[in-house]
Amino acid sequence: MQTRWLAFLLWCLSLVSIISACSSGKAALKQGDYYDAVLNSVNRLRGSPTHKKATTVLAQAYPLAVDFIQTGIQNGLNSDDPRKWRNAVAGYNKINYLNDQIKTSLGAMKIITNPVTKFKELAEAKPKAAEESYQDGIQFMMKTTRDDAKQAYFSFKEANDYQQGYRESIEMMNQAEFNATLRVAYEEINASRINYGSFQPIINSLQRQFLSFKPLNANDTLKPHQVLRIVFNGFYQDNRAMISSRNENIERSIKVGEKKMPDGKVQDIMETVKATLTIFTKVKNARSEAMVTVTDVATNGYLQNNQVQGNARWQYDWATFKGDQRALNGDQLNLCKRSESFPNDNDLYNQAMNRLQENLTQQLRGFYSRY
Questions:
Q1: pTM metric for this prediction
Q2: Residues 105 and 226 placed together within one structural domain of the fold
Q3: Which of 23, 139, 241, 303 has its Cβ near the most Cβ atoms within 10 Å?
């Protein structure tokens, strides 16, 4: 029974998918999005090779899609568009992709028996697209900003993707990446007596393309653009936990019995009970501190100079009461079952250091997100 139900559920899901794909194909066709209309109908025909609406959409949309793409390519090639060959490559790829999709769908192959391919045209266009990208890279390299160097890197990479080893695209790509990379010399100083470990994992998490961190004492032959210093100042905690208390006067009306009235109805017998609850709160605070400075090597000026803290807090509550216990609710009774406790200094230290590392990571990621 369960197997039949699962099979029925899968059939329903498949039916919903087919209906959705058909609707999407018809909608795309009506909106003039012939390319998506073809893909949607081909996908429908994979699951249902004789689907009537999908075959109708495919027969109408495919020639329109190919004609639309080819017209766009030709119009671009006849223009002064600096990306005309790259756009042509994209168009030829789309036509070839339609061919691949149709040939992997039995239902679609019955409708479009000889899909168009542009493999020869694509092969001829790729070197020209590579030259467009290469020339873009040269233009960006002639500028001096890191952002321009980044754009040059991606342009040379695009040229190499169009044609492996095109001219000096790999060498130029490497040079552009070098020019775009911000080099940061990193120094960590422990100004306390605590062996806290290292903040190196934080620095490692910042490493990415176009952003390089190396130790200040690494004797790198390349001059850094910035110097990042993290000075750990120490861990501090309260000398002792502080205890405070507050009283709550509680009054409740509770049922203590029942009595029968002259008219035969039963009435609850209520009693007011009172208690005084004394709630004790014990607190101990701790914090870890570090100073973060980022210096611009060219100007020797501070780009960032902030103190970062990691705060920790231990708090414990318990209570006692006087009066009638029945006046207390469940939470209050549970508090009264507790007795005084004492903080664990190691837990406070670990909590403070974890918070400090989290805050350092957040601040440094925020700062270097602009680069």
A1: 0.77
A2: no
A3: 241
